Amino acid sequence: MGTTQLETVPEPKYWHLKTVLSEALDSEFAVGEILPNERDLAARFGVARATLRQALEQLELEGRLQRRRGVGTTVAPPRMGVAVGSAQGTWPGAVGDAWQPADCGPAVPPADVARMLETLPEEQVHMVRRTRVSHGQPVAAELLYVPTSSVPELTGIDAPSGAARARAVLRELAGLGLEGQDRAVELGSARADDAKALDRLPGAPVLVVTTRFFAEGRTAAVSVATYRADTCRLTFGDSGGVEIHHGPERHAS
Q1: HEC secondary structure over 168-228
Q2: Radius of gyration of the chain (CA)
Q3: Which of 135, 133, 113 is nearest to 124 (CA)?
Q4: In angstroms, rounded to a whole number, what is the distance separating the alpha carbons of residues 109 and 24?
Q5: Dihedral over Cα of 177, 235, 193, 96: its sign
Q6: Is-contact 208 226, C-beta < 8 A?
Q7: Which of 92, 115, 178, 252 has the fewest Cβ atoms within 10 angstroms?
Q8: CB 107 within 8 A of CB 125
Q9: Phi-psi region for residue 38, left (φ > 0), alpha (ψ -120 to 50) or beta?
Q10: Where residue 144 falls among pLDDT bands split at 50, 70, 90?
Q11: Mean pLDDT score, 228-232
């Protein structure tokens, strides 16, 4: 990576540096290779470390770099396309669902989720934790919030806790007639529990997909799925589900 006269460039220094670094990643570094430390990179380009960090953070957001615990900053593999389909006919846990139930327990949902579910303040719901793995790599973690009114036949005797309890909630939920669903997508930062599940650092960029499931004229469940923004890109279509495709694309849809 050669030096660049950043002072003569009208755009922000970090933005131009990001472009230069991106070109160098394509020509000089292999996937998984560790970048030099910040001090050496800043000296090489003649910029402040704060400017360098801005450029590196932008490249991480775009999926070109990954920060890995105990390793450092490495060149990221190509992003995996995550197709968010528009099918309205299946509940979580249906045949072909790629998510794996991990745990289930009572919890008070976040305020925004409680408003969607129209539950009372401090009212507990069933919170199902699920994970998604592709090619041996964790790519997403989900919290599915289900009010007790949506699964009235659920008993603690059959499945008191853990993955068995999660499967029981999904089984009971599937007994409702699904009337439709809607999704919202936003960029966020990984919370501590999400970061642990996705093998990321807290605060790493993530894509958050919130889905509401409607039955009996109300919101019967809410899913908050957190995807790794460094390895996933969302695509939208009529595929009828969520699938992960591996390919060379690096851009975000």
Answers
A1: HHHHHHCCCCEEEEEEEEEEEECCHHHHHHHCCCCCCEEEEEEEEEEECCEEEEEEEEEEE
A2: 21
A3: 113
A4: 45
A5: positive
A6: yes
A7: 115
A8: yes
A9: alpha
A10: very high
A11: 78
User: Contact 193/182 with Cβ under 8 angstroms?
Assistant: no
Place of tokens 């090619």: 135
Q: Which residues contact 214 (CB under 8 A, 6 or more apart)?
A: 178, 179, 180, 181, 220
Q: Lowest mean pLDDT: which of 66-70, 86-90, 91-95?
A: 86-90
Q: Which two tokens stand for residue 69?
A: 């615990």
Q: What is the CB-side half-sphere exposure of residue 139 using CA atoms within 13 A? A: 22
Q: What is the mean pLDDT of residues 133-144?
A: 86
pLDDT tens for 17-70 read 888 888 888 888 888 899 998 899 888 888 899 999 989 988 887 778 887 777
pLDDT in tens, 100-113: 999 999 999 999 99
Cα 26 from chain centre: 25
Q: Which residues contact 236 (CB under 8 A, 6 or more apart)?
A: 83, 84, 86, 253
CB 38, CB 53: distance < 8 Å: yes
Output the CA–CA distances (angstroms, integers) from residue 35 to 28, 167, 189, 215, in the order listed. Answer: 11, 43, 23, 50
Helix ranges (H only) for 12-132 are 13-28, 38-45, 49-61, 111-117
Measure the CA–CA gap between 176 and 45, rounded to whole angstroms.
60
* CB of 140 closer than 8 Å to CB of 227: yes
Backbone angles phi, psi at 138, to 5 degrees: -70, 125
What's the CA gap between 178 and 150, in Å, rounded?
A: 11
